[in-house]
Amino acid sequence: MELIVTAAPLTLPTAPVLAAGEATLATLAAGYDVIRQPLGQILPRLSAVLSGLVPHRAAAELSTHCAHSPFKSFGDEVYATRISTAEMEPLFLSGTAGQPWQGRATIAGADRPVIAVMTDATRRGALLVLVRDEGAAPAEDAALAVVQALWDLVTSHVDRLSAEAAPGALARSRAAADTRARVIAELGARHSATLTALLGVLRSRNLHDAAARSTATELAVSALAELRAEAERDQAMAEERVDEAFARLADSLRPLLRHSPVRLELGAPDSTRSVAADVAHTGRAIARELLLAVLEQDPVTRVHVGWQITGPDLRVTVRDDGPGGMSYCGLGPTRIADRLEVLGGRLDIDPVPGWGTTVTALIPLTTPDAPAAAATDPLGTLGGRELEVLTRLAQGHRNRAIAQELHISESTVKFHVAKILTKLGVASRGEAAALFHAAA
Fold first, then answer.
1. Do 220 and 295 lie in a common domain?
2. What is the CATH number of the domain that holds 435?
3. Threshold 0.85, pTM exceeds
């Protein structure tokens, strides 16, 4: 039997219309129609496919496996443009994979009827939310089961593209992640500076009406805390700790040699630094392919796989005790070079006849223009309050004077000074002051 999917809009009829066999075929056709779309069109197509089964005004997803845009929304602009990750997070944390929930939740700035679908098809889970009209009839269990199955399929597909670090998806991820990170940083810095300046004015003892000042201060503090929490949530979804990323790699490599005489040695990174998700995905994919390539040699009795953070790069090393005759051609028809080219990395092979081969992949942790940007603005990593402290420190003020001027405690000043020294990579207040004057 030939299954033909046309370009015409494809929606799933309501469950009572279809017999079991027809419903299965329709679901399979719908799933195929969704995952064959470009990455940016998957959510809109999924929403269109589900519209006949579960009518809704907007759809939103929070997908922790997606490096370039973990949050997406689509639908009626009145709803879709107002949905935020802060509103999605409670549903994400309370959701249970495989058990769709329908009820009311704060979404798009108001209390609305929603359907929330969680999946564990990815390591950290993914959430789909459908925003429904007021008075909409509850969805039937059969309809919810189809929504769950399609969401599991879609997230598994996208997660596979990320995990395998396919060059096309990787290029899109890096480009989108760079743009997104720059915009978030600019907006965050602007709002943080505005709120910090507002707090400075409100905390001034020269202003009257203590009640109004206290209320405004609380609002500003709450806004600043929410801004920082939002940035931390976004960072957690777009990054992985390098030691945890390597542990995932180790779990995937051990089964490959479970019944092999070759001994696998693992060199975990001695760092807890966070790296971009696309870098972690690429490191795991390259390590797996290099391991499979060196195992093709004969004889090989020991293979060492290790990661290390060396300056601006993630260094992925695979070393064996084989004949030492491996070359670039010996790596076979892999996409290693394409993956590294996307991220601006390189591959080095060091064969020693009779002793083995060491293959090293260097993956930049940042984009090529990031170091140059940091060099032109060495103070760019500092927050608004840290810049205020550094400005006064550079003027020769001591901690007590800084605390009095900024209306904060002396211990808080010490905390900020320690953070400033760490971020600037200097060892003393004098060095920090010199760097500030040079930048200014």
1. yes
2. 1.10.10.10
3. no
